[in-house]
Amino acid sequence: MGCAAFARRRMLPAMKAHPLVQVAAVASRDAAKAAETARRFDCRPVVGYEALLADDTVQAVYVPLPAALHVPWVEAALAAGKHVLAEKPLTTDPARTRALFAQARARGLVLRENVIFVHHSRHAAVRRLVEEGAIGELRTLHATFTIPQLPDDDIRYRPELGGGSLHDVGIYPVRAAVHLLREELEVRGAVLEHRAGRRVDTAGAALLRSRGGVMAHLAFGMEHAYRSRYELTGSTGRILVDRAFTPPADYAPQIVIESSSGTRTCSLPPEDQIASALSAFVSAVESGSPAPEDCLAQADLLAQIHRVAGREG
């Protein structure tokens, strides 16, 4: 539903390559764009999103539209009986996020937010290392995701479309905290920065504390040098993960473990995390599994960060 650049560059090629996914149709409000995209991916072009939802041969829809358009089109897709995979953030309001999941549940449909990195097996390996005591008792998490400046006409600079660094890049370190710490988190401090001439936040930072006392220091921005990493520090060592959130499919990931006995590196085979995310969505559709609670925890934290940063700024 839509011909967003990320959909054409990453998601549609992964869908076409996936053995359990068939790209049936691509819809755009622009007939020429729909036709060109459909040719690339050997599917039907559809003009208008309503026409796509009226197609009974379509079982599920992928929604890469701007965040501000997610609520009406996800609601429409669910009402049409379609399973939905929507780009992150699902919404910018936790109440609306919960309402969409409730609608999906009431109709017996699967709704998922496309946070891709959590499906990479490296992060499960990191959690196992922490649980096994590789770095002693966990004390802190530092997570950072920053990207270079975007073109001035990029939708992420448009507040009316749900733009801004918090919901575009800040979502990665926030979800990392939820995914890795596995405890209820509270925002203890936050700041959002607005560069001159920008109508949205372009950078930010947040301090979170888990119920068990682990502190999470998060940083994000979209006019910076590229950085994508996190570090877990414990009572006896630390774990370092670089290129944590957007590794290419051919990248052989590593996990570095430092302790008093020295440094060791765990090397893992390359993995296409987009293919893994698609497999998770297909499995959810086949099994009818409920929505993961992590998505709701993430939505609450993003709203808290926005609220605390507004109060402090």
TrEMBL record:
Gene3D superfamilies: Dihydrodipicolinate Reductase, domain 2, NAD(P)-binding Rossmann-like Domain. It comes from Streptomyces rubradiris (Streptomyces achromogenes subsp. rubradiris). This is Oxidoreductase. Belongs to the Gfo/Idh/MocA family. PANTHER family: OXIDOREDUCTASES (PTHR22604), TRANS-1,2-DIHYDROBENZENE-1,2-DIOL DEHYDROGENASE (PTHR22604:SF105). It holds the Pfam family GFO_IDH_MocA. Residues 2-112 form the Gfo/Idh/MocA-like oxidoreductase N-terminal domain. SUPFAM superfamilies: Glyceraldehyde-3-phosphate dehydrogenase-like, C-terminal domain, NAD(P)-binding Rossmann-fold domains. It comes from the Bacteria. Keywords: Oxidoreductase. InterPro entries: Gfo/Idh/MocA-like_OxRdtase_N, Gfo/Idh/MocA_domain, GFO_IDH_MocA-like_dom, NAD(P)-bd_dom_sf. Residues 124-239 form the GFO/IDH/MocA-like oxidoreductase domain.
